[in-house]
TrEMBL record:
<dbReference type="Pfam" id="PF11144">
    <property type="entry name" value="DUF2920"/>
</dbReference>
<protein>
    <submittedName>
        <fullName>DUF2920 family protein</fullName>
    </submittedName>
</protein>
<dbReference type="InterPro" id="IPR022605">
    <property type="entry name" value="DUF2920"/>
</dbReference>
Length: 191
């Protein structure tokens, strides 16, 4: 029978940046409990595909190829809105917003430093958009004028990007964990 289990394990801290990891490492394991898998396959999630695709890919690979399939929710997998990140304005984004509006002579209803959440950010952007529409109607802006503004993404779980180092370590840590604790024989090896 096809089994799909979710695990949460300890993983490593970011020694390079001296940052302690705040969350457990989660991964999903799919296998047939009536057979010994011939291979352990890692599906790297979050590379543009729907993160829940591991359910379908894992099930298919287990049935068709007698494998065990692992999908790791590696460090900072939540770095896109689809995977849990949120929009916010960091200090540079706020500086760009303030300078751009001053250059366009758009008076904001309050100081950009007071923008603390998505709702306030959205309100300000709608305000700026409305000011530009009115300005274009009055001839203050050319019809094709636009402002280049910027927002940042805050990854889920208070994580951060570090160029794949933590992500690679997470995949290795899952492989090492499964070598010791897999619910099937890992010593048979390939053919």
């Amino acid at each position: 029978m096809i089994v799909s289990k979710t695990y949460e394990i300890d993983s490593c801290d970011d020694v390079e940046l001296d940052i302690k990891r705040e969350s457990k490492l989660e991964f999903k394991l799919c296998f047939d409990d009536e057979k010994t898998p011939e291979a352990l396959v890692f599906v790297v999630q979050g590379m543009g595909d729907d993160i829940s695709s591991i359910q379908y890919v894992g099930d298919y690979m287990v049935r068709q190829f007698n494998t065990a399939v692992v999908g790791v929710n590696y460090h900072c997998i939540g770095n896109r809105p689809q995977t849990g990140s949120t929009f916010y304005l960091d200090d540079i984004d706020k500086l760009i917003l303030k300078a751009s509006c001053e250059a366009a002579d758009i008076k904001l209803p309050y100081d950009v430093d007071k923008i603390q959440d998505y709702k306030q950010m959205s309100e300000i952007f709608h305000f700026v958009n409305n000011q530009m529409v009115e300005g274009k109607q009055k001839g203050n802006f050319t019809p094709n004028y636009f402002l280049n503004l910027h927002v940042s993404l805050q990854p889920a779980k208070n994580e951060y990007q570090n160029f794949g180092i933590m992500q690679a370590q997470d995949l290795l840590n899952v492989a090492l964990y499964l070598k010791k604790h897999a619910p099937f024989d890992t010593m048979a090896g390939g053919g």
